[in-house]
Amino acid sequence: MAKTKQQKELELQALHDKFERSRGAVFASFAGLTVNDAQELREKLREENAEMVVAKKSLMGIMFEKSGLTKDQVLDMEGSVGVVFGYGDEIAPAKIVAEFAKAHDVVSFRGGVLDGEFIGVEKVIALSVLPSKQELLAKMVGSLKSPISGFVNVLGGNMRGLVQVLNQIKEQKTS
């Protein structure tokens, strides 16, 4: 049964709300993916505060226009296209889809949106190999902590040296 205009408008509004709420989105082809594999992907996405939506490209084009992007970018994508919205980490959708694509040949990137700008397949692939936000923050904290730790060790070394000198003086006086 064909959808009514009202149903299409509700679907478009839901799609647009998800797009506006997301911090990053990835477009990918999922044609040929089995239902079980699609469920597995959806579960992995849910764990990372992301979700996959499959909609008509014409609806995604209208969603793009509402968001200030060019709808031709979506309409020019080949084949059926799904969109993965990431609500937490901006690059999580790209990482999850790339990891999933390693085990499933039928999954391939078609583009993405980051910071309100459309990005091509090459940039999405580049994002997918970056460390996660948590990993980058941990590395930054380690880098910030390193000079302080070194300074504490240097100060501790002076104290250890002083204690050793005092112990040697004490041993000389007792012998």
UniProtKB/TrEMBL annotation:
The keyword rRNA-binding applies. It comes from the Bacteria. InterPro entries: Ribosomal_uL10, Ribosomal_uL10-like_sf, Ribosomal_uL10_bac, Ribosomal_uL10_bac_type. It holds the Pfam family Ribosomal_L10. CDD domains: Ribosomal_L10 (cd05797). The keyword Methyltransferase does not apply. GO terms for molecular function: large ribosomal subunit rRNA binding. Keywords: Ribonucleoprotein, Ribosomal protein, RNA-binding, rRNA-binding. GO terms for biological process: translation. GO terms for cellular component: ribonucleoprotein complex; ribosome. Part of the ribosomal stalk of the 50S ribosomal subunit. The N-terminus interacts with L11 and the large rRNA to form the base of the stalk. The C-terminus forms an elongated spine to which L12 dimers bind in a sequential fashion forming a multimeric L10(L12)X complex. PANTHER family: 39S RIBOSOMAL PROTEIN L10, MITOCHONDRIAL. Forms part of the ribosomal stalk, playing a central role in the interaction of the ribosome with GTP-bound translation factors. Belongs to the universal ribosomal protein uL10 family. This is Large ribosomal subunit protein uL10. It comes from Candidatus Kerfeldbacteria bacterium CG15_BIG_FIL_POST_REV_8_21_14_020_45_12.
